[in-house]
Amino acid sequence: MTVANEFVSRTDATGRPYQPARLSGPAGIAWRYWVVGFILVLMPVAANSFVLFQIFGWAFILGMIALSLMFLGGYGGMVSLSQMAVAGLAAYMMAVFGSSGVTQISLGWPWWLTVPVAIIIAVIFGTITGALAVRTEGIYTIMITLAIATAFFYFVRQNYTIFNGYNGFNQVLPPQLFGVDWRQPIPIYYLTLAFAVLAYFLVVYVARTPFGLALQGVRDNPRRMAALGFNVTAHRIAAYAFASFIAAVAGILLVWLNAQVSPGTVAIGPAIDILVIAVIGGMRHPIGPFIGALIFVTIRTFALDILVSVGIPGERFQLLVGLTFLAIVFWSPDGILGLWPRVRRWLVSASSLTGSTSEEGR
Amino acid sequence: MSTFVQRHPVWSLVIFLVVAIFIWAIFAAWPPGLESVIGKKKVFLNSLFNGITLGALYFLVASGFTLIFGLMKNVNLAHGSLYMVGGYIGYGVAITTGWWVLSFIVAFIVVAAIGVVLQYAVFRRMEGEDLRQTLVTIGISIVLADLMLWIMGGNTFQILAPSWLGGPMTLPLVTAVKSSGEPVYMTYPIVRLVILLGAIAIGVLMWLALNRTRIGMLIRAGVDDRDMLSATGVRIQRVFVLVFAFGAGLAGLAGVVGGTFQSVAPGEDTRFLLASLVVVIVGGMGSIPGAALGALIIGLAEQFGSVYFPTYSVVLTFLIMVLVLAFRPQGIFGRTR
Known about the structure:
The complex is a heterodimer of chains A (362) and B (337).
Chain A: H1 3-14, H2 19-24, H3 31-46, H4 49-76, H5 83-97, H6 111-133, H7 139-158, H8 185-208, H9 210-220, H10 222-227, H11 232-258, H12 268-281, H13 287-309, H14 317-331, H15 335-351
Helix pairs in contact in A: 1-3, 1-8, 4-8, 4-11, 4-12, 4-13, 5-6, 5-11, 6-7, 6-11, 8-11, 9-11, 12-13, 13-14
Chain B: H1 2-7, H2 9-27, H3 32-38, H4 41-72, H5 79-97, H6 100-123, H7 130-152, E1 168-177, E2 183-189, H8 190-212, H9 214-224, H10 226-231, H11 236-261, H12 268-283, H13 288-308, H14 313-327
Antiparallel strand pairs in B: 1-2
Helix pairs in contact in B: 4-8, 4-11, 4-12, 4-13, 5-6, 5-7, 5-11, 5-12, 6-11, 8-9, 12-13, 13-14
């Protein structure tokens, strides 16, 4: 299969090849979008199916959930640990209303009905969570959302009538749309890529809308915004609703990628992993969560090889992730994204001994 | 007390009625009609006592958490890990030396030392940066949990209480009346009662230390206004280290208690972290009486929930938290700042 052939056929199949680039036309787009876009679209040529499925599929989905946290944390100043629970609820709803291996619970609705219902239920849950969490501020938000996420985990583990308790659901498969088996590595790569890109540009767009700007104002000074006539609480709850929508879409992709959902999906560990991903990547810009997710998934996948090569048993992956997380929080609170300005400043100061500021104006 | 009654007559009446019903239910022999509706009195009394002792355990964990938060305004999300470290250390000491009491002392000292290291190495470096401190403690809890899993494996350990504390004890509470008219009294494990008394003693001592001593005065002043206190010449960093060590030590102590009447196993750290979070949210952040009341409520809710509606016991706990947040976001004893 030639490069060109691969490229053309895959973009036709998904119908959505790197849409934003095509929408805006070639002119006026920063070079980095072109480079990243080409690399991502042409990735299936170079990478094998394991990398596409296990690394990029996971990274896009976890990146989307972390993106919803980044939206709340970076633009709203509210760090929520319940985003994984929202995504997990959407995944569970796909299994409950759609079809799964547990036929006595699953209702077997068609996918075009199940998807909106799952998103709506998850968004309602996320909005109620937000309405509770915004009654408090700062650190309290983390604690309350952590408590809600944990309670959700114990609830789904104990409830057998809806959530099938300890076992959860298996064989939750994506629909065979356009005659494509969406669980094959290349289709699911493009599916998750498309939604990740959509979510990314949606967040970039919403951050620039009046709502997004007001939200950032609320983050910086809620009292002043209230004095200006903005309803602070309503803005915060709306931010939770929007973040829940992204998390819910990611949850649906997650259950399709995984083909199963169980209490382990929404346990405390995964909920904290989302925060780890967002912090590793950086909460300043929507690209951060995706970088963080890629690093996280890569560490998780290759932890065995890394640890064994330095003589530590391979199952100590959490230790590696925890230490990486600690190192980043200690030395670069803005994550990987925060390192870039530092490196550039260092490079500039190293090259220009005269202290000329002409470099800064770019 | 009297001002509370004057200000909230309806709530006082509700609280009074609930307490009266409870006291009647504890001491009176139940009529047969009631037993047919909600089950045997023995079950009720057992879950009541289990709830109170569980509340005592929660109080030990949560009081350290709330004390640290109240003074230093940092949320130590590694508190559950400290609890588990204490449990494992207590188990190790109890197994090697055979002294149950010694395991409390060693666990307290070692975990307090870990607390001192945490305060010096982590919290002091990022004072005032709430979010960063929280993130660091999450990272520490991930690392500690995995280290403990590595060292101790995934097994469940139970710390055995000494033989003089083993066995049940008869309490002067009637659970049922036999057909011959002879009353049946309730029996309950001695070790749990001892732990309950110990927790109450620690709570009272803490209250006395906070309200009647010089260091307690400093701590209370620090809770109210930290900057002003340090401006008056108090070496506030020493107070911080002391409080952090004490709070962490209490978590270690609670680990031994939890390991004795439940067990130590991976995953307990998050369970107790969640419990302390809910307890302090319900009771009010930074308040010791609040932690006591919250722990009692949550312990009772968990036990009664698991007996009378087993599937949804977690939801009951959660519902209490939601109700408190909805009507009193700062917690029952919390103060608005």
